[in-house]
């Protein structure tokens, strides 16, 4: 429940990045450990992956933001549909299981609210490394007789988890693997750094060409998860949409250039102040056009949040979603709050209105939930966002953090 109209003020800290923590946890399968991960966010997706790792035979201990994992022996090679259907990122255990044991049986992730989200590139890369892959009864059966063998793999499209899955498998393959058209996201860079800390030999992460020299085995991981650039971007929009002034701690500005540049174009003030980042806005935002792109372009995970802000702009903005084919589920809900948005194929034409009004709305996916909450913070009256289990997958205590910034928001049963 949100009562809108309160400008946000104060300081907020960004939690560890969900999309870094998930591949890092999957990578613990690659060696017995003991592994230690700190600054891990408390999220449903992390709990889901923990259950999966334990089913595979790992011992996982979570104390606050620290997660300790040891994986002396893989007891099962199966990632069941019941778990994978709740979190597609479970498919990240495929590469590590294959590299460690030569076997894996992972349920095919279904589609989700934002698109069909195939994993053909994951399978293409693992096959190229020598695995035999067959799909039966909704499961991927992967086998590698003997060690995987390094090779050159060129992805048809840049895929974040596809790059991560194949990168993890390549660390234990014989010889050199070259990944071309690889994803350049900061989460890939962070995974490569953690893997090199375990003894892997990876160069080029963060560019479209990553080279891996396979090694016999890997040692323990000891890594602090970096801050979540999407959560940070969400707080920037929260300050802008409520015309407040906040300071963000652990804000990874260096990974947020596309978002910062678009927000500044919309008239938002963003500046570093020591180890904090100041974000403020005093007026309605200027309209801006944006296209989502793989990193370092504008992140698709910030598209819904920007749409909420631009719904109040002094003019018309065109938002084009080029990464996923159906990531406009939040549009119908924003319209219920008075937003004027027309969909034209992959683009949303957003005609800014002077104000939004609170309404009961329904979350459909993680970032759509955030977008509706942001709109609620600015809307006149009460907004009730239902199905916020979507939100809990990717934001740690969001309503508490927003309350600490002065928002009138609470979770009601
Ligand atoms: C990761 O998903 C993120 N999830 C997503 O964040 C994020 O939206 C996405 O990257 C894009 O940045 C995690 O990191 C856990 P992709 P991923 O493979 O890896 C197509 C969130 O909100 N594709 O980079 O699944 C695909 O259909 C989530 O935190 C293939 O065609 O995304 C899409 O159009 C949502 N074949 C495009 O590539 C494949 O084998 C990019 O997808 C794989 C992908």
Notable characteristics:
single chain, four-stranded mixed sheet, binds ligand EPZ, 14 helices, 413 residues, 31% helix
Notes on the structure:
α5 (120-128) packs parallel to α6 (160-170), α6 (160-170) packs parallel to α7 and α11 packs parallel to α12 (366-378). The model has no long low-confidence stretch (mean pLDDT 96). The protein has helices at residues 18-27, 44-56, 81-84, 94-101, 120-128, 160-170, 186-197, 229-241, 257-265, 303-310, 329-336, 366-378, 389-392, 398-404, and strands at residues 2-3, 9-13, 35-38, 59-63, 66-70, 78-79, 103-107, 132-136, 139-143, 152-154, 176-180, 201-203, 209-213, 222-224, 245-249, 269-273, 276-280, 290-291, 316-320, 340-344, 347-351, 360-362, 382-386, 408-409. 31% of the residues lie in helices and 24% in strands. The strands form six sheets. The protein has a four-stranded mixed β-sheet with strand order 22-23-1-24. The chain has a four-stranded mixed β-sheet with strand order 2-15-17-16. It has a four-stranded mixed β-sheet with strand order 4-5-3-14, with helices on one face. The N and C termini lie close together (10 Å). The longest helix has 13 residues, at 44-56. The relative contact order is 0.14. It is an alpha/beta fold and 413 residues long. The chain is elongated. Ligand EPZ binds at residues 18-19, 22, 89, 115, 117-122, 157, 159-162, 183, 300-301, 323-324, 366-367, 394. The site of ligand EPZ has 24 residues, from α1, α5, α6 and α12.
């Amino acid at each position: 429940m949100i009562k809108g109209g309160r400008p946000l003020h104060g300081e907020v800290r960004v939690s560890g990045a969900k999309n870094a923590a998930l591949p890092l946890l999957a990578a613990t399968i690659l060696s017995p450990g003991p592994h230690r991960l700190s600054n891990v966010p408390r999220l449903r997706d992390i709990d889901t992956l923990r259950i999966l790792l334990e089913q595979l035979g790992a011992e996982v201990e979570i104390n606050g933001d620290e997660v300790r994992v040891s994986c002396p022996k893989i007891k099962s090679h199966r990632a069941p549909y019941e778990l994978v259907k709740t979190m597609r990122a479970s498919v990240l255990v495929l590469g590590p299981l294959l590299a460690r044991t030569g076997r894996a049986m992972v349920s095919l992730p279904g589609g989700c609210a934002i698109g069909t989200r195939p994993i053909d590139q994951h399978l293409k890369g693992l096959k190229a490394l020598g695995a035999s892959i067959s799909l039966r009864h909704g499961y991927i059966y992967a086998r590698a007789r003997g060690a995987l063998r390094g090779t050159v793999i060129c992805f048809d499209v840049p895929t974040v988890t596809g790059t991560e899955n194949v990168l993890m498998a390549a660390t234990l393959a014989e010889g050199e693997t070259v990944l071309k058209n690889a994803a350049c996201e900061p989460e890939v860079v962070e995974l490569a750094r953690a893997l090199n800390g375990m003894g892997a030999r990876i160069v080029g992460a963060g560019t479209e060409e990553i080279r891996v020299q396979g090694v016999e085995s890997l040692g323990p991981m000891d890594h602090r998860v970096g801050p979540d650039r999407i959560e940070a971007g969400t707080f920037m929009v929260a300050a802008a949409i409520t015309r407040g002034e906040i300071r963000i701690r652990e804000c990874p500005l260096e990974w947020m250039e596309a978002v910062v540049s678009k927000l500044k174009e919309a008239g938002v003030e963003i500046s570093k102040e020591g180890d904090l980042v100041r974000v403020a806005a005093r007026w309605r935002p200027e309209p801006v056009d944006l296209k989502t792109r793989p990193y370092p372009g504008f992140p698709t995970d910030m598209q819904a949040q920007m749409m909420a802000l631009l719904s109040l702009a002094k003019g018309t903005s065109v938002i084009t979603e080029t990464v996923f084919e159906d990531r406009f589920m939040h549009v119908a809900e924003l319209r219920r709050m008075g937003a004027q948005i027309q969909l034209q194929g992959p683009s949303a034409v957003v005609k800014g209105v002077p104000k939004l009004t609170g309404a009961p709305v329904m979350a459909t996916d993680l970032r759509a939930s955030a977008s509706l909450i942001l709109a609620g913070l600015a809307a006149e009256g009460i907004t009730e966002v239902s199905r916020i289990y979507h939100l809990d997958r990717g934001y740690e205590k969001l309503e508490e953090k927003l309350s600490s910034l002065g928002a009138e928001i609470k979770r009601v049963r």
